[in-house]
Amino acid sequence: xxxxxxxxxxxxxxxxxxxxxxxxxxxxxxxxxxxxxxxxxxxxxxxxxxxxxxxxxxxxxxxxxxxxxxxxxxxxxxxxxxxxxxxxxxxxxxxxxxxxxxxxxxxxxxxxxxxxxxxxxxxxxxxxxxxxxxxxxxx
Length: 139
Description:
Layout: H1 3-16, H2 29-36, E1 41-44, E2 50-55, E3 59-64, E4 67-73, H3 82-88, E5 95-100, E6 109-114, E7 119-124, E8 130-136
Antiparallel strand pairs: 1-2, 2-3, 3-4, 4-8, 5-6, 6-7, 7-8
């Protein structure tokens, strides 16, 4: 095959990979379901009038009073490294906070948050590896 065929194929493949982005704090459950389809599970949580809708691919969305407030997903590709996020957040005033302590052989968990972009990442102390991407309303 000709080399240009591979370039065209890569461009088409990249266009087909659609990133979802919701307007957290404004998107309704019906709009979420129109985009994502029906959830595979609904989980109750101890927040008043809230639940978590679970979709394929371990994507989860917290809903309060019929409005999507947060999204949780696994990192993909380069997003799995903390270095990727530090570069992505280079223009952002970030906040880092410890969310769970390490005991014994466990490493502590931290959240690196960029309020202006409405994104946080969860990573393990000293590993440089991101385990979760959290999307929320931009501040």
